[in-house]
């Protein structure tokens, strides 16, 4: 009898089930083993959202030049793996790779995501590959959120502080001048009201839930004297300071001077919002300087804008949040030692070539504040901060700033829910803060990871 | 005539009878059937069956997303009872389904009836209704985001004369889910229209002509002739819509592109919540347990619907 003739529905299903079971067991068992040591120790993969970009730009070239320079002088090579920033930020590709034990050897990490990866045991201690002078060269606080127990687990490429950008034309149309730039929260909403028209909002705060929205809201919480987790014996999230910061953002929506839904990529996107006349003032980061310059160049526009530090509540102390991505090495990669050496060389080398590399990244191909003092001095000497907006960032925005905090996803989500519930859901700030505080406190009772800063 | 079996035992067969065909018609048809089904079956096993089995396995572990697996038995399933945000997401999905399925069905059926009979340009009209479905959902999301943006979007601008220019369709928690339902219907109406059109075309014209001779009006014709005969097709569309509204692309892609679950959690569907558990919180075990329950619920719901309606035929014996 032919083998085909023996195929029945029942036997086909039975065979299929066996095949499924076998196929399922193999990856499950292999996944239990974990680790990405199966990679090539002579070739380090470097996942990033800059280069080699299929549409090459200066930032992409900086990355490809970096890899080429390293590869020309080292036996262990670096291979760049580019992915669009939206895909990188969504975290699926990176997370899936780590879940499968195939995480890249080197990757970019923001402070907001630091604890997830550190507590997962995949970050390499870079301290053995850095001299004390190299560590000391990083500006005050630049390494704080990348350190655990005095060990450095990531080297920042840049510092990206938050401020408020404003449209000069919108101010002039509303008959406002530089002297009217708001310095307090009350003034901020008042000026926003004067700038609001039928097709323009006065002020834009981020409304899309996520790490970025939290990052932009934290400074208001800090300025009022609050914190997301108890600090120095403080009350934690359920405090009058937190209530007032939540209420500020809520008031912007209820007064209809802030949009519920920004344009383009949201609060990070200055051309689509401030530049397009959708908002007259926009809270965003220093990257807005290069975004607007590029937008002006591409569209042959002369959009006039200015920058001022975040307004302060009555009786509060000024601060802002400083973000910025860091290079980190996968401790479960094929060659963590070589990956750490590469990072120490790329971002920590304090010879003339290393300083120049940092200067170019921060002030030529991007508009950032350098994370290293030596790079900042070199940039100053080269006139990088002659640009009025960058000068405001350097002289007025950064002094008194605080690094983007590193909280676990559980804390971040509780804070995010409170912001969303009050800002867009109309919830009572005190109740939203109490609900979030209860979740945070419950989580902290069982938390055993690195300190939240 | 006699033949000798291998054992040497003589087997007698009636003289003149043909040998039993190994490849009789029934077997040949069965083989052809399996061959036709095989590519789909393999795809289903690889991309649906295997992940389902894996999900059940992973749901029994605490999987941290970095290769660490700790066996926790049914803990991930027990966690669901006290997870208030999960139940909020369930409410969102139930509301979305309750609105999307009936409204989407009525709209699609209306369109199918509209383009059922021939009129000049009917092909073009059908194509226009179907076009949204061939566009990527991500592109659909971006396009609608552009159209609905506060103050400056085309829709708020059109509504300004009636005093609705300040309406935030995607930023107001009371409107955001409704906006997603409307966009989903716009996206899927052409696809469902096409399926219902196929069902309508299968109804013999003679039945309607006979009803007309008996004095049936348009509504009576629809109520007593078209609707009963369209039941199996309608059933397919409804089941497909229910499953799609819970786990389909529109339940995730549109939410991801347009609202990220906001504002204030008002559009955080169950699948989006599962995604967050896996890729925001690294809780892959819990995400797998949630997936297992959702799939189990859908299988049970579909089987129940099939059972109660006799596979959509309702009155079959």
TrEMBL record, chain A:
This is Sugar ABC transporter substrate-binding protein. The keyword Signal applies. The keyword Magnesium does not apply. CDD domains: PBP2_TMBP_like (cd13585). Keywords: Signal. Residues 1-25 form the signal peptide. It holds the Pfam family SBP_bac_1. It comes from Nonomuraea longispora. It comes from the Bacteria.
Automatic annotation (TrEMBL), chain B:
Residues 1-20 are annotated as: Disordered. Residues 90-307 form the ABC transmembrane type-1 domain. Keywords: Cell membrane, Membrane, Transmembrane, Transmembrane helix, Transport. It is found in: Cell membrane. InterPro entries: ABC_transporter_permease (IPR051393), MetI-like (IPR000515), MetI-like_sf (IPR035906). Belongs to the binding-protein-dependent transport system permease family. This is Sugar ABC transporter permease.
């Amino acid at each position: 009898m032919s083998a085909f003739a023996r195929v029945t529905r029942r036997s086909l299903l039975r065979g299929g089930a066996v095949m499924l079971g076998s196929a399922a067991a193999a990856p499950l068992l292999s996944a239990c083993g974990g680790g990405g040591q199966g990679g090539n120790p002579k070739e380090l993969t470097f996942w990033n959202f800059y280069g080699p970009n299929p549409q090459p730009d200066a930032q992409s070239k900086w990355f490809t030049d970096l890899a080429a320079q390293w590869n020309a002088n080292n036996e262990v090579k670096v291979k760049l793996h580019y992915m669009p920033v939206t895909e990188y930020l969504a975290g699926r590709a990176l997370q899936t790779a780590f879940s499968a034990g195939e995480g890249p050897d080197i990757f970019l990490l923001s402070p907001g995501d630091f604890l997830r990866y550190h507590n997962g045991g995949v970050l390499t201690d870079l301290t053995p590959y850095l001299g004390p002078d190299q560590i000391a060269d990083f500006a005050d606080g630049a390494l704080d959120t990348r350190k655990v127990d005095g060990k450095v687990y990531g080297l920042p490429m840049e510092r990206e502080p938050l401020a408020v950008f404003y449209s000069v034309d919108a101010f002039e149309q509303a008959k406002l001048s530089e002297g009217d730039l708001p310095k307090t929260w009350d003034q901020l909403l008042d000026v926003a009201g004067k700038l609001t028209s039928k097709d323009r909002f006065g002020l834009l705060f981020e409304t899309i839930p996520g790490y970025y929205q939290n990052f932009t809201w934290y400074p208001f919480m800090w300025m009022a004297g609050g914190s997301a987790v108890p600090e120095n014996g403080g009350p934690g999230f359920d405090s009058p300071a937190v209530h007032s910061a939540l209420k500020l953002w809520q008031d912007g929506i209820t007064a209809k001077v802030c949009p519920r839904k920004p344009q383009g990529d949201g609060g990070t996107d200055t051309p689509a919002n401030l530049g397009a006349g959708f908002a007259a003032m926009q809270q965003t980061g220093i990257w807005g300087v290069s975004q607007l310059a590029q937008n002006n160049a591409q569209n042959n526009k002369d959009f006039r804008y200015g920058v001022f530090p975040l307004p302060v509540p009555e009786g509060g102390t000024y601060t802002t949040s400083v973000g910025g991505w860091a290079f980190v090495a996968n401790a479960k990669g094929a060659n963590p030692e070589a990956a750490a050496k590469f990072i120490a060389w790329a971002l920590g080398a304090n010879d003339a070539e290393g300083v120049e590399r940092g200067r170019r990244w921060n002030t030529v191909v991007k508009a950032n504040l350098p994370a290293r003092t030596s790079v900042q001095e070199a940039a100053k000497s080269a006139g990088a901060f002659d640009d009025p907006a960058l000068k405001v960032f350097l002289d007025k925005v950064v002094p008194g700033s605080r690094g983007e905090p590193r909280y676990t996803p559980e804390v971040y989500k509780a804070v995010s829910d409170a912001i969303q519930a009050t800002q867009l859901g109309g919830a009572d700030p005190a109740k939203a803060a109490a609900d979030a505080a209860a979740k945070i406190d419950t989580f902290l009772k069982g938390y055993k990871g690195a300190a939240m800063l | 005539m006699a033949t000798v079996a291998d054992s040497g035992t003589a087997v007698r067969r009636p003289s003149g009878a043909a040998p039993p065909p190994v490849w009789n018609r029934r077997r040949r048809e069965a083989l052809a059937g399996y061959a036709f089904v095989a590519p789909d079956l393999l795809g289903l096993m690889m991309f649906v069956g295997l992940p389902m089995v894996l999900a059940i396995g992973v749901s029994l572990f605490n999987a941290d997303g970095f290769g660490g697996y700790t066996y926790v038995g049914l803990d991930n399933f027990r966690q669901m009872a006290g997870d208030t945000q999960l139940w909020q997401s369930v409410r969102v999905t139930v509301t979305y389904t309750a609105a999307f399925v009936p409204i989407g069905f009525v709209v699609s059926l209306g369109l199918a009836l509209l383009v059922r009979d021939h009129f000049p340009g009917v092909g073009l009209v059908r194509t226009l209704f179907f076009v949204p479905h061939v566009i990527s959902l991500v592109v659909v999301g971006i396009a609608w985001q552009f159209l609905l943006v506060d103050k400056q979007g085309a829709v708020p601008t059109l509504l300004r004369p009636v005093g609705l220019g300040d309406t935030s369709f995607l930023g107001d928690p009371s409107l955001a889910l409704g906006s997603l339902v409307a966009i989903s219907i716009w996206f899927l109406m052409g696809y469902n229209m096409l399926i219902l059109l196929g069902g309508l075309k299968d109804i013999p014209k003679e039945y309607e002509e006979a009803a007309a001779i008996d004095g049936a009006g348009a509504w009576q014709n629809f109520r007593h002739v078209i609707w009963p005969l369209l039941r199996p097709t309608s059933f397919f569309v409804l089941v497909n819509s229910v499953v799609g509204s819970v786990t389909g692309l529109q339940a995730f892609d549109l939410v991801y592109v347009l609202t990220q679950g906001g504002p204030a959690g008002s559009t955080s569907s169950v699948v989006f919540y599962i995604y967050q558990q896996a890729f925001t919180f690294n809780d892959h075990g819990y995400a797998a347990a949630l997936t297992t329950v959702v799939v189990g619920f859908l299988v049970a719901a579909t089987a129940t619907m099939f059972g109660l309606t006799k596979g959509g035929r309702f009155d079959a014996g």
